[in-house]
Write a structure and sequence with these properties.
Radius of gyration: 15 Å
Number of helices: 6
Low-confidence stretches: none
Strand content: under 5%
Helix content: over 70%
Shape: globular
């Protein structure tokens, strides 16, 4: 549990808040919940932190087949 808590705290606060909002929406009507989840995901992608991480991922070759095949072992290179 401590590893999970530590990992979560390493994420941008804005992303954590939006993820929590998505979890809190779990009791909505399914269609409404899916619509809200898609909207929250789009919000996360537009944050400065996400844009910075996406840019770093692409600059380090994240879009290549080689990197995609090795994501499990090298993922920390992109987020540190």
């Amino acid at each position: 549990m401590n590893r999970l808590a530590y990992r979560i705290t390493s994420f941008p606060a804005e992303a954590i808040a939006l993820a929590k909002q998505s979890v809190n929406n779990a009791e909505l009507d399914l269609q409404e919940e899916l619509r809200d989840e898609a909207h929250l995901f789009q919000q996360i992608l537009r944050t400065e932190a996400a844009q910075s991480r996406i840019k770093r991922f692409m600059e380090k070759g994240g879009q290549t087949r080689e990197v995609k095949l090795r994501m499990g072992e090298i993922r920390t290179e992109f987020w540190s």
